[in-house]
Amino acid sequence: MYDRRGPDQGTGKMASPKRRAPVVEGTTEAEPVIFVCVACEVPLTRPLTRLPEVPEAPYYAWWDAEEPGPSPSTVPTGCYAIETEPYGVPLLASEVPAQVMPRYGTMSDQHGQWLVSQGPRDNIVINPDDALGLEYHHASSACCGATPTGGLNQRCACGTLVATLSSDCCCPYELHLSADHVRAVGP
Prior knowledge:
The chain is an all-beta fold and 187 residues long. The protein contains no helices and 15 strands.
């Protein structure tokens, strides 16, 4: 059972403290970086400039869309942001309704229990159009794209799983690079 709009429609939630990801040695926070695979050093993105936080997902009435497809991207082209909240699997049962993941809305399991992410923090969120050479691996799919509920679903050409794509029409359109599987380098 899914309601991607969330219980609070993006309002009324308390701001969480922002942790700062390290800046690439020899650069400033405003300078662009390229994210590479830690296993093979292949570039996975175009040069990207850091945003202070992940933007709110744009409102998109996917249920009224004439053609199925992804929502507008959460992150503008040429930018990235650090997701400080848990994102992705594992999803664990919760006693109270809450967003399963940031910008994703609520979700319950087959028994009607609310689910919340206990996945990793500090993922690098980018516009999927800024990714280079990633291959679709497996996915928890929906009607017209991938959902993040199945875990890492994008791999580098070397075979290393490096990211989670969220591209279904009812999900925020974003790519989460795993902080454990990529690193930033100067362009």
